[in-house]
Amino acid sequence: MDDNARATTIQMGAAADGTLTYLVDAPPEALPPVRQRDLAAAWDAARSAATHEDWGPARLFRFRRGDGSATDLALADPDACCWAHAVDATIGTSTSYGLSLCLRLLGLVDLLAQARWADALFTVRRDGAEIHPALLHAAATTALTPDARLDPERVRALVARASMLSSSATAPRLSSGAPA
Questions:
Q1: Of 102, 156, 167, 171, which one's alpha carbon is 20 to 30 angstroms from that of 24?
Q2: pTM confidence score
């Protein structure tokens, strides 16, 4: 059985200061894709939590690889803690799906802040955000990187592919050569 096929075990704990710790027996890139609608709902929950200043605790993650190495990730930024807390309060982060959803949400926020090519694919307003469905789908389904992020170029390629498929679905069809 390969690493992607086996169930991922996540052990959670809490330190005296409230910091949550996660020991994950798989690397970030082995976490599953999530449903696009769940990522959109997580975005909305996180936005609501931020509006209500429901910041949440810091979180420490250790992702163990089969070869014994590990990837460590610390969430201490108040905004990141807030967004992770919102996912934890809705779907939970103690399963591989919930943890993947959390990391994809954080990765999407990071991508929107860093990748200038994505500027045309989202609009942020006081009352919420509008994110292009192809961008949401790509963030929900592309594999996470070994450092638990979204790869901007992989996401960009998936968005471009979705755009090509969408435009070819609406483009006029060439006839098969049969008389009309």
A1: 156
A2: 0.85
